[in-house]
Amino acid sequence: MLEPQLSTANLLFALSGFSSLWAIKAFINYKRLLRAVNYTPGPKTHFSEPSLISTLLPRIPGIVQKHDWPWVFKYTAFEKYGRDLLAGLVFWPSARVLIHVADSDVAKEVTSHRAAFPKPVAPYKIANYFGLNILSTEGEEWWRHRKAIQRSFSEQNNKLVWRETVNTILELFTIWDEEMTANQVFVPGVADLTRSLTLMVISVTGFGMKLPWKNDGPLL
Known about the structure:
Number of helices: 8
Oligomer: single chain
Structural class: mainly alpha
């Protein structure tokens, strides 16, 4: 009868020892990361945003931070700390720092220096369904894809797409203003609407052919 008790005691002892070692290691890494970011303030949470546990559990301050928190709290999250740059720390599955930026100049600096700030490619593996692409790669592979599409996605073309998208949407708003009843507009399907918008923008920017929203038929 002593052996099961000893086995249980040994198991509990091992678990407590493992937990203690993990806690000590996490604390050491926590202090190391704080020094690395010069003690920049920010949200501290136990479970990282994309983990399974954080997905299943509700938002618990200091324990679980949901992945949509920037959309929920917006700039108020930064106002709490009185800064436009926060250093968030997570402890599980390993201690690491997440930098959150609300300053346009800093954001431009980060996105303009790909070598110093490479994007994490793991979340974009789903985009590799048809093979590697500019979204799911970094480094030399990214440059190879970038070279292939650089002429099509130039700053001049981006401005053209933006301008024509705005014009197309404004034309739709004008039609809605004319046809609305009781200040309401009925849209049969958002997917049909956005598909039509996409095709119209591609037509005018890629082929120089401007398509109307209404052509003797129903408005999609």
